[in-house]
Write a structure and sequence with these properties.
The complex is a heterodimer of chains A (256) and B (410). Chain A is of the alpha/beta class and 256 residues long. Chain A is 37% helix and 24% strand. Chain A has one domain: P-loop containing nucleotide triphosphate hydrolases (Rossmann fold, 3-Layer(aba) Sandwich). The longest helix of chain A is centred in the C-terminal third of the chain and has 14 residues. Chain B has 410 residues and is mainly alpha-helical. Helices cover 72% and strands 2% of the residues of chain B. In chain B, helix 1 packs antiparallel against helix 7 and helix 7 packs antiparallel against helix 10. Classes of the chains: A alpha/beta (256), B mainly alpha (410).
């Protein structure tokens, strides 16, 4: 059963067509990676799904509801959460406040000014629990902007999953991390997306082939293949368009 | 427990001030402080907590104040019948209504767009106040008499000190509600939207709606402050909703410290004192206020409250007292230097006539005075610069991380 579907999704900036008629179904419960060379439109596709950009044409459905061109906050409320390629947290709020803010809407607190957050014992406990899961419990009272880079990336994940959304979209979650930090991040991603649907954009091929159940290849705004990791690796079109150049470096070991 | 003590202390200070200082001047100043505290706190809801820089916050203060004066007139002519203790609520409701209207289009974006709209609305209201004379009373303003309403437990508010106690009650309640607002989802999301409006949208919140709620709440409390103004002065003019008043509340909140809830309270107290006391001694107090603002922006970007909070670490380590002497060593020449500069400014101002400055008489025509001042300034500046090293060292020592008595960093 597909949880997210794109039908002929297109996006142009002026005369430049960045996304050209993408059709893609994300199955509920799968871990789906979108790969492609720089400038292929991966992040743009994420922005279209999550409501940051308006579509030029096409339809996107999430759980059989059309979500294209709706504001980001409405899409988020439906249970679609995302992280950002460039860390996008609340720098002056504490680490704890960051994840708690991520939980507020789903908790039904909305724009309330009648509830005192200090009294929300269960919510506060859940926020602390999530901080423990992303290994930031000891930093709970720190301003988020003062965390180290890898910790900020972990918090970025934490804010994204805080709402308990069923569909989680991660935009290059391990970009800029050292090898050991990336390994820790990958196991964290596995743990926190357990039982959920994951869509992610990632450049590191080892991580993609490690995590993904299915991979879609986006080249110049078009999906040229969408299949299991093995089939993607064997696909001559993909090798020609994309993997060929990376095979030397990124997936050399896996490919041999 | 600590919080309870702080609030109890706040209430005791508010109610105890007139017992300590009961001169007419003191009560006048306390009344001004009460108004300024509520107004500055409401401004901080916008700028400090919501990230909205407003150049027109006096609009809500002024409209609330005008309506409050009209309500007093209505009470006087028995058009309506209620206790004048509720007048600040009238001001608040008018501030709220105005903020709902303006906020519906101005909170779409923060930053420059919001700032420019606030400036425009401020100018528009200032112009309107001279056009719609029946409501705003033109340049003379409107006036009323607060003593006609039904007595409040026998009090008829003939005296300023009675109004002060009424204001103190309102200040306490308004402060408490504004503090509680920061602890609600709406208040906390205001901080989140200030930090990063984009991300707020992706966790389910419309940044515009969050700003709108803060804006309206802030407008309400500005109106309450306007109502307190009306009660205290019994008249109000165009000046109370124009850019001068908007600028002054910005200064109060900024000098006090935007990042802290208590900051605007400090700013309101300091600026009211400067306004009332300094203006007795020098015509140049506005200049000094401007200088203080620039110095605060440059050297204390987090305001007086931020300066106080800087000492938290040292205090927790029990090393605050070790800073006393170093502060004195650097502070004394700094004060002398500042004093010499002020004396020079005053001498330029009082050209050709002798005048009293602190404990001495100065005369700009006397070359010896100029030479002495220059010598004082140069020597104290040199001493201040030379002593900065010991202050820095003492500061490092008091704040050093990894003290054995401490559990860990932070």
């Amino acid at each position: 059963m597909s949880i997210l579907s794109m039908h002929n999704v297109s996006k142009s900036f002026g005369k430049t067509e960045i996304i050209r008629g993408v059709n893609l179904d994300i199955q509920a419960g799968e871990r789906h990676a979108i790969i492609g060379p720089n400038g292929a439109g991966k992040s743009t596709l994420f922005h279209l799904i999550s409501g940051k950009y308006q579509l030029s044409s096409g339809r996107i459905t999430f759980r059989d509801q059309e979500i294209q061109n709706r504001p980001p906050y409405e899409i988020a409320r439906l249970g679609l959460a995302r992280s950002f390629q460039v860390t996008n947290i609340f720098p002056r709020l504490s680490v704890f406040e960051n994840v708690r803010c991520g939980m507020l809407w789903q908790q039904g607190l909305g724009y309330s000014f009648r509830h005192l957050l200090g009294r929300q014992t269960e919510l506060n406990a859940r926020a602390m629990h999530l901080l423990a899961e992303i290994n930031l419990a000891e930093r709970a009272d720190f301003p988020a902007g003062e965390l180290a880079y890898a910790q900020q990336r972990a918090l970025e994940l934490g804010v994204a999953i805080a709402s308990g959304a069923d569909l989680i979209m991660l935009d290059e979650p391990v970009a800029g991390m050292s090898l050991s930090e990336a390994e820790a991040a990958v196991s964290l991603i596995r743990k926190i997306t357990e039982g959920k649907t994951l869509v992610m954009v990632e450049h590191d091929m080892n991580i993609v082939f490690d995590i993904a159940d299915r991979i879609s290849v986006l080249v110049y705004g078009e999906i040229i293949a969408s299949d299991s990791p093995q089939a993607i690796r064997a696909n001559p079109k993909v090798q020609e368009a994309y993997l060929g150049e990376v095979a030397m470096t990124g997936v050399g070991g896996n490919n041999a | 427990m600590g919080k309870f003590a702080a609030w109890a202390g706040y209430l005791v200070v508010l109610l105890g001030l007139p017992q300590l200082f009961d001169s007419v001047l003191a009560i006048t100043i306390f009344n001004q402080m009460a108004i300024a505290i509520v107004f500055a706190l409401s401004y901080n809801m916008l700028l400090g907590q919501g990230g909205m820089l407003s150049f027109g916050h006096a609009v809500y203060f002024g409209l609330g104040g005008f309506m409050a004066v009209h309500a007093l007139v209505m009470i006087e002519f028995e058009t309506v019948y209620f206790s004048i203790t509720l007048i600040p609520l009238v001001g608040g409701l008018i501030g709220l209504i105005a903020a709902v209207f303006v906020g519906s289009f101005s909170t779409h974006k923060a930053g420059t767009v919001f700032a420019m709209i606030s400036l425009g609305i401020g100018e528009l209201m200032a112009a309107s106040s001279l056009i719609f004379v029946s409501f705003f009373g033109g340049e003379a303003g409107v006036s009323a008499d607060r003593t006609f309403g039904p007595p409040f437990f026998g009090i008829e508010f003939f005296q300023d000190v009675e109004i002060y106690y009424l204001s103190a009650g309102w200040v306490f309640v308004a402060t408490a509600f504004m503090y509680l607002f920061t602890q609600t989802p709406a208040g906390r999301m205001a901080n989140a939207v200030r930090d990063n409006p984009e991300r707020a949208e992706f966790i389910g919140y419309s940044a515009r709606r969050v700003r709108f709620i803060s804006f309206c709440t802030s407008g309400f409390f500005a109106g309450v402050a306007g109502g307190l103004f009306a009660l205290n002065y019994e008249f109000i003019t165009e000046e109370n909703l124009n850019a001068v008043t908007s600028g002054r509340v910005l200064l109060m909140a900024y000098i006090g410290g935007l990042g802290y809830f208590i900051g605007p309270i400090i700013g309101a107290v300091v600026l009211t004192l400067m306004n009332s006391l300094l203006s007795n001694y020098t015509e140049l107090w506005m200049l000094y206020l401007g200088m203080m603002f620039v110095l605060t922006v440059l050297f204390l970007p987090r305001g007086f409250a931020g300066f106080i909070m800087m000492h938290q670490t040292a205090w927790l380590r029990g090393k605050l007292s070790s800073l006393f002497l170093p502060y004195l060593i650097t502070g004394m020449p700094a004060i002398i230097f500042g004093g010499s500069i002020l004396a020079a400014i005053e001498m330029l101002h009082h050209e050709g006539e002798p005048f009293g400055f602190l404990f001495i008489n100065l005369d700009s025509g006397n070359t010896l005075h100029w030479l002495a001042l220059t010598a004082f300034a140069a020597a104290s500046y040199y001493a201040c610069r030379r002593s900065l090293g010991q202050l820095n060292a003492a500061w490092e020592e008091a704040n050093r991380v990894g003290d054995p008595t401490e559990g860990g960093p932070g």
